[in-house]
Design brief:
Blueprint lengths: L1 E4 L4 H18 L10 H22 L2 E11 L2 E7 L10 H5 L1 H11 L6 E7 L3 E3 L13 H12 L4 E8 L9 H4 L7 E5 L8 E9 L2 E3 L3 E11 L5 E8 L2 E9 L4 E11 L4 E9 L12 E9 L3 E7 L4 H11 L4 E7 L12 E5 L9 H9 L4 E4 L6 H5 L5 E4 L5 E8 L10 H4 L8 E4 L2 E4 L4 E8 L2 E13 L2 E6 L4 H12 L3 H15 L7 E4 L3 E3 L5 E6 L12 E6 L5 E5 L1 E3 L2 E5 L6 E11 L2 E12 L3 H4 L5 H10 L4 E2 L6 H7 L7 E10 L4 H20 L4
Parallel strand pairs: 3-4, 3-6, 6-7, 7-36, 9-15, 16-17, 16-18, 18-19, 19-26, 28-35
Antiparallel strand pairs: 1-2, 2-37, 4-5, 8-10, 10-13, 11-12, 11-14, 14-15, 20-23, 21-22, 21-24, 24-25, 25-26, 27-29, 29-33, 30-31, 30-34, 32-33, 34-35
Length: 695
């Protein structure tokens, strides 16, 4: 411990000199000390010298510097896999009883020289191993890594011990994800690497959405392990009725068969399809012999009409992008050939319309009169006088057939919808559009998605933007050549997905109907069995001002007709409901609230899908555990030899206790005992002066 100041040390002598002069002037100016006598004057002078010098010293802002030493033992983390795959086989009793006692014995084998922390992991990481139940539906090694990194980064982490069967079905490969911790990793190889007798539904692939009256495909992969010579029956059922059945003959030790089917979407709403395969004798488990999938059958796809003045590659690019989303049905025609009714469409895209001579104006007027959203794309053939007369919030004047190449600059404050970061990242490198040059003006309500950028200069003129004219949504692309965007996106990402997202997000915003109801309930229509069922609700008065002081209730009904009552909780300006985790199945709900406008209700459906990933692969992956340990300066052991891990860690010379020095600075003036000392010295001086007859 030492005392330092912010001021130069030579100023301390000045403080002492001030104290000496003050005391000398007060008590030693009379050389004979007639008032106090030489002894008393010396005592009083010393007291005054000490007080004044100390007070002057405080002006220099002195600090007390101390060094605190702390020794941290090496930390050993033991993480136990708590997923269901460990107890699928015949050793389930061992892992639930004897093995857990061995694991607890390992934690005690390190003695007092190490700090031991234990965790269980699966889909989540939890502290301790006392509540191991092997009920986690997923195994996530990378989630364990992230948790340990957040907990122990910067601390004296010596080693990690992971007990698992090496099977993971969430996150990244642990072999490549654990290197950032840079500590030895030891693995305990659990599970059985022997291929067990089993038949199972390996996977079922089907579109989440289908449309009434259409057929939808379903791909089923059946797998057999050590089932050669056996046969069973695959069935697909809906509402208790078998809609497909076929025999499966296993002619190999390791058997795979892909079955492609298609079914008619006949009923609207969430439809549950159950796929199952009959079991065989002595198979390891029958849990993986069935799967359920849920298909949301919609009444029909939204229809989008693309009208062009003349053939153009932009028309094809727009059609391909919109058609990539199954929710839309696209029709493309030239304006001169269109004789249909615009009211049949949810959105009309007008390429270079209205054109010379007012071509397409009548179609645009019909769309506007029926509140059909419109997306315009300008080009060299656009008749801007006709366009300006539509009063859509955009106008271009003084156009003299001049074209300017303009690039896109993303508007970070755009709020009507969001684009994924990988999409916005490619925008600066997209080819410029050919934009008509003139005096461009917009109304105050226009929301730009992309600004016009000339070279490195981003202007405030919109390149792609949206506006509302009364109750109708309007979109505008100010130039032609977006087919180059499609090619450019593919060159950067080897996929058309980024371009498709830009177009489909624009289409989704424009074609979506505004919800003007006073009571709204929002939530997903498909939940996994390991996640909570969450809903949000909004309640408004006739002026569309939010209300959150009413009781909002929900009845959830399962497939057996059982009803469960829930109450929403106020949250911000709305309401939230966490119904917890529900069993796998199909559900319907009725939400209700008693408002000033009477009883308001909202109905809907949702499904809870099963998670069976832990049952698909029952063969332990000890090669991964070995590589995992080997690449991280550790070793893999089996449960029978797990106590040897403690000796292995002790033999690693780099795993030692670490001493830390913590330097601490405290203001000297904050020490209360110094204040007490000053008061005591001044009090003593006053008493001695008083006793001598002075004041």
């Amino acid at each position: 411990m030492s005392i330092i100041t912010e001021a130069p040390t030579w100023l301390i002598s000045v403080c002492l000199l001030v104290g000496l002069i003050y005391a000398g002037a007060l008590y030693f100016r009379d050389r004979f000390n007639r008032t106090y006598g030489s002894f008393l004057a010396s005592v009083l002078g010393i007291l005054r010298f000490a007080v004044v010098s100390l007070l002057c010293f405080f002006i220099l802002k002195p600090f007390v510097k101390s060094i605190e030493k702390k020794v941290e033992k090496p930390i050993v983390v033991i993480a136990q896999d708590n997923s269901h795959s460990l107890v699928v086989g015949k050793d389930s009793t061992y892992y639930k009883n004897e093995y857990l006692n061995q694991l607890k014995a390992l934690t005690s084998a390190f003695g007092e020289d190490y700090d031991i922390f234990t965790y269980s992991f699966g889909n989540q990481v939890k502290e301790g191993i006392d509540s191991i139940s092997y009920n986690e539906k997923l195994t996530d090694f990378s989630g364990l890594l992230d948790d340990l990194y957040n907990r122990y980064s910067g601390r004296n982490l010596g080693a990690i011990v992971i007990a698992s069967d090496g099977l993971y079905n969430k996150g990244s490969n642990p072999v490549y994800s654990y290197q950032k911790l840079n500590v030895p990793v030891f693995t305990i190889a659990l599970g059985d690497t022997t291929v067990q007798r089993d038949v199972l539904i390996n996977s079922v692939t089907a579109n989440r959405l289908a449309y009434k009256g259409n057929k939808f495909p379903m791909e089923i992969v059946v797998e057999g392990r050590k089932a050669q010579g056996e046969s069973c029956t695959l069935t697909v059922s809906r509402k208790g009725s078998v809609i497909h059945s076929e025999p499966i003959i296993f002619d190999k030790e390791r058997f795979f068969k892909t079955i492609n089917l298609s079914f008619d979407a006949t009923d609207i709403g969430l439809q549950k399809y159950s796929i199952s395969i009959t079991g065989i004798n002595d198979e390891i488990t029958r849990v993986n012999n069935s799967k359920d999938v849920f298909i949301d059958v919609l009444d029909g796809r939204q229809k989008v009409l693309i009208l062009g003045y003349a053939p153009h590659p932009d028309l094809g690019a727009l059609r391909e992008a919109i058609a990539s989303n199954e929710s839309y049905k696209v029709e493309m025609k030239l304006a001169k050939d269109f004789s249909g009714n615009v009211s049949d469409y949810s959105l009309v895209i007008l390429h270079q319309l209205p054109a010379a001579g007012g071509a397409g104006t009548d179609i645009i007027q019909k769309a506007m009169n029926q509140n059909i959203p419109c997306l315009f794309e300008w080009g060299n053939s656009t008749d801007f006088n006709s366009f300006n007369s539509l009063n859509l919030g955009y106008s271009l004047s003084n156009y003299r057939n001049n074209i300017t190449d303009v690039s896109a600059g993303y508007n970070e404050s755009f709020s009507l919808f969001t684009l994924e970061p990988n999409v916005t990242a490619i925008i600066p490198n997209l080819s410029p559009l050919a934009v008509p040059f003139g005096d461009f003006s917009t109304s105050p309500g226009v929301s730009p998605l992309f600004f016009q950028q000339v070279g490195l200069i981003k202007t405030q003129k919109p390149l792609v933007s949206f506006n509302k004219v009364q109750d109708n949504k309007i979109g505008l692309i100010c130039g032609e050549g977006i087919w180059r965007w499609r090619i450019g996106a593919f060159q950067q990402t080897e996929s058309h997905d980024a371009f498709n997202e830009i177009i489909t997000k624009c289409v989704q915003y424009l074609s979506s109907k505004e919800d003007k109801s006073l009571f709204r309930v929002n939530g997903k229509n498909d939940f996994l069995e390991n996640e909570p069922v969450l809903f949000e609700a909004e309640l408004y008065n006739p002026s569309f001002e939010p209300i959150n002081n009413r009781d909002v209730n929900m009845k959830i009904r399962n497939e057996e007709g059982q009803e469960f009552d829930y109450t929403f909780s106020p949250s911000g300006v709305g309401y939230k409901l966490n119904a917890g985790q529900l069993p796998v199945g199909n559900y319907s709900y009725v939400a209700s609230v008693n408002s000033d406008q009477g009883m308001l209700k909202e109905t809907g459906e949702f499904s809870v899908s099963p998670l069976q990933l832990e049952f698909v692969n029952t063969i332990a992956d000890h090669r991964l555990l070995y590589q995992f340990a080997h690449d991280n300066n550790g070793e893999m052991v089996y449960p029978s030899n797990m106590n040897s891990i403690a000796d292995m860690i002790r033999n690693k010379k780099e795993i030692v206790s670490v001493a830390y020095e913590n330097k601490k600075l405290d203001d000297l003036i904050n020490y209360k005992w110094i204040l007490a000392l000053l008061i005591a010295m001044l009090g003593l001086e006053w008493l001695l002066r008083k006793r001598s007859g002075t004041y």
